[in-house]
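Dear support,

Our group has been running a series of protein-ligand predictions, and this particular one with adenosine monophosphate is the one our PI (initials K.S.) wants archived with full inputs and outputs. We had some confusion internally about which version of the output was final, so please treat the block below as the authoritative record. The input we submitted was:
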Amino acid sequence: MDIVLMGAPGAGKGTQAAKLEKELGLKHISTGDVLRDEIASGSELGKRIAAVINNGDLVSDELMLSVLKNIVAGTKEGIIFDGFPRTITQAKMLDAMLVQLGRKLRKAVAIELPEEVVVERLGERKQCKLPDGEIRQIGPDFSQEDCQKQGGKIFMRPDDTPEHVRHRLAVYHQQTEPVIQFYRQNGLYAKVDGNQDPQQVFESLLAVIKQ
Ligand code: AMP
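Confirmed final output from the archive:
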């Protein structure tokens, strides 16, 4: 069972995908994390990716697919795609890739959140970089104290500044919102209210996924 988790930046996709991964025994694949790992590796490709991400733009569909393909092909469990697809072209590429690999998309679920809440949340969002390189989001499941206790460093994402957030939201409206229509047309679309307690969002997600 594969699931696409959609929503504007800051809607809580990462947090919820991690919870769904545990609950449903799925594999959480965040394309943002995949790209940040490539940057952390210090490769030439990583340097090109950093320039795009730090500006709040999307990396090209071709690059995204080439990075993702091997990961999906090497995954036996069902997948929660977090942050992918972000364009109609990617949605079509995903369809073709899943057919090729004999996999099936069960639902594309969007976490909906008013824009002013998104801007506020991202302005306050903090991450923790652990000594082994793992990045955890600071939140109800992992506090700043947890981070410090484990020897981690607290930081803010360079693309979470107000200026970059505005740009990312514009990119989201222009390029990613049409993907919702794509999934509506093929009957896989569902949405949940993201402006509730994280546990309630989680339960709403479970309910629509199991429908
Ligand atoms: P995220 O962690 O999902 O907010 O993604 C961070 C950044 O990674 C985005 O602002 C994009 O620059 C890039 N990115 C992540 N996923 C994709 C994707 N599916 N297509 C293109 N760029 C992406």
